[in-house]
Write a structure and sequence with these properties.
Length: about 270
């Protein structure tokens, strides 16, 4: 028990910023984010543990394996520091368990909502506005990303003020939230195929005075986005089944597009 110890606001905020901007990107094959996480909480833990041996024990535990969506990391850091501020070394096993048990569920929510859903929907809206020459699209995108940065401080406060109680109360709902977000994200991505992926063919067939355009006369009659869907399926096959990297896929599409445009097989 650490009676009378109260972490300074400066060190608590510093832990959030250190993890968010550097610690979450400090990866290795042994502990993944473990090193960055330990570095982020080093200063507030030093406030808690004045004795070197106690401090080393806590830091060894913090240096263990850790991996999470960076946006969600501050929530775990908040609960971690709150527990150690209250219970000291007696909380280390509980903190280890909390870190281990929350990595998966919180990453599921973070990946679905913030890695996939947010950039897909909001990035598309901002991109369309930019394509129309509206600078408000870029401004909105920057403001939203700034909001996400400030969100990390709020998540830390939630974890710190509520400790483990709030997180454990929501644990049974995390899987449902993750699944729902995944379905929504896939739906949005699917709809973008027809609106964002643009593949057309200018090929025309002439029978006397009758002209039949391959795109408008055949493809659009069968499925308006037939070529975009076909291209998306090919890209998925190459990346998922053939294990092509995204750079190889992009270069292949560029080369194929240039050849198709030169021979007037593809184009507007």
């Amino acid at each position: 028990m650490n009676n009378g110890i109260k972490l300074s606001e400066k060190n608590k905020k510093r832990a959030v910023w250190k993890f968010s901007f550097i610690g979450a990107n400090n990866l290795n094959y042994g502990t993944l984010m473990g090193t960055g996480y330990a570095w982020a909480v080093a200063d507030p833990l030093r406030e808690i543990y004045k004795n070197d041996e106690d401090y080393q024990k806590a830091m060894r535990m913090e240096h263990e394996y850790f991996n999470i969506t960076p946006y969600m990391g501050p929530l775990v850091i908040g609960a971690d520091l709150a527990m150690q501020e209250k219970e000291g070394l007696e909380s280390l096993n509980a903190v280890r368990s909390i870190k281990t048990s929350l990595m998966g569920p919180l990453s599921g929510i973070g990946d679905s909502l913030l890695w996939v859903l947010y950039p897909t929907i909001m990035g598309s809206i901002a991109g369309y506005m930019a394509l129309d020459g509206n600078p408000l699209g870029a401004i909105i995108w920057m403001l939203l990303n700034l909001t996400l940065i400030l969100l990390r401080l709020k998540l830390f406060e939630i974890g710190y003020n509520s400790g483990v109680r709030l997180i454990t109360d929501l644990s049974d709902k995390l899987s449902a939230i993750t699944e729902g977000a995944s379905v929504m994200g896939l739906t949005v991505v699917g709809s973008l195929i027809a609106t964002v992926v643009r593949v057309k063919s200018p090929i025309e067939f002439k029978f006397g005075e009758v002209v039949l355009n391959l795109q408008t006369g055949i493809f659009d009659k069968i499925l308006p986005a037939l070529l975009p869907v076909t291209l998306t399926g090919i890209v998925y096959y190459l990346m998922e089944k053939r294990k092509w990297g995204f750079l190889r896929v992009i270069l292949t599409i560029v080369v194929f597009s240039l050849i198709g445009s030169y021979f007037k097989v593809l184009g507007a």
